[in-house]
């Protein structure tokens, strides 16, 4: 696929934002220690509560030692609607992994985000848990995770802020038959500990095509069901995104 064809495809998707970060697709698998990272660029036409044009950039940097992994992820998107001036959303995520043995990894994470389009003025969370390697073949991998997280959520409107304790669990499958193609599917389930009916179920599918050593093209589909969403936000949301991924320091 030629580079200019990819640029043309980038402006086509229908998009509704999903709010749950899929950290599994952001991990860079490498057998060497040291620094690695990626940068991403996306351009989307959005149909949500209104119609928007969106330009997004993100950066991911990680540092790996023999048993530890430090990961930082930043995302920022500028959104312009037909009626209003610019709206925007952003997210900052930090994660630390410590490998206990061949199969178990201890994780700790914190995250801050906002999304004015979906009435989220601020959401902050922190948590810790375990990540398990179920299957670790070179071309086919399965991971699962179970964590506790504390979540502070402040809606955009005059609605009382909430402080919730949640379980965050996931199953992630990665299929990589060759160097030029990768498929990652991750399912998250995040219920409140004290009120199980308040839960989020999210499924994320990413298909990545390698163009060159530093450049890849990705298609990402996300589907989220939130049983108790923020005011004026649909219970079911989904997104279809096209992205260019730039690899560096790997």
Could you outline the blueprint of secondary structure elements for this entry?
Elements: H1 3-9, E1 34-47, E2 51-64, E3 68-81, E4 86-99, E5 104-115, E6 120-136, E7 140-155, E8 162-178, E9 181-191, E10 199-210, E11 215-226, E12 236-248
Antiparallel strand pairs: 1-2, 1-12, 2-3, 3-4, 4-5, 5-6, 6-7, 7-8, 8-9, 9-10, 10-11, 11-12
Provide an overview of this structure.
There is one protein chain. The protein is mainly β. The chain has one helix and twelve strands. The chain has one helix spanning about 5-10; strands at about 35-45, 50-65, 70-80, 85-100, 105-115, 120-135, 140-155, 160-180, 180-190, 200-210, 215-225, 235-250. The chain has one domain (about 5-250): monomeric porin ompg (Porin). A hairpin with a 3-residue loop joins strand 2 and strand 3. Mean pLDDT is about 85; it is low at about 1-20. Strands 1-2-3-4-5-6-7-8-9-10-11-12 form a twelve-stranded antiparallel β-barrel. The protein is globular.
């Amino acid at each position: 696929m030629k580079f200019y064809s990819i640029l043309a495809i980038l402006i086509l998707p229908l998009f509704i934002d999903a709010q749950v970060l899929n950290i599994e697709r952001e991990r860079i698998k490498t057998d060497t220690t040291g620094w690695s990272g990626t940068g991403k660029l996306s351009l989307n036409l959005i149909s949500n509560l209104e119609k928007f044009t969106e330009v997004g950039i993100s950066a991911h940097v990680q540092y790996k030692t023999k048993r530890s992994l430090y990961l930082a992820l930043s995302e920022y998107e500028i959104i312009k609607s037909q009626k209003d001036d610019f709206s925007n959303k952003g997210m900052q995520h930090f994660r630390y992994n410590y490998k206990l043995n061949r199969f178990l990894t201890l994780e700790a994470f914190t995250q801050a985000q906002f999304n004015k389009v979906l009435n989220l003025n601020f959401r902050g969370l922190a948590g810790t848990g375990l990540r398990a390697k179920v299957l670790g073949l070179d071309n086919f991998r399965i991971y699962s995770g179970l964590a506790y997280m504390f979540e502070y959520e402040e809606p955009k409107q005059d609605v009382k802020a909430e402080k919730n304790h949640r379980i965050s669990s996931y199953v992630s499958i990665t299929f990589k038959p060759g160097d030029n193609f990768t498929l990652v599917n991750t399912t998250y389930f995040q219920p409140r500990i004290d009120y199980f009916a308040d839960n989020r179920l999210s499924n994320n599918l990413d298909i990545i095509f390698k163009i060159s050593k530093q450049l890849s093209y990705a298609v990402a589909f996300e589907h989220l069901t939130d049983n108790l969403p923020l005011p004026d936000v649909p219970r079911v949301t989904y997104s279809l995104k096209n992205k260019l991924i730039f690899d560096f320091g790997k």
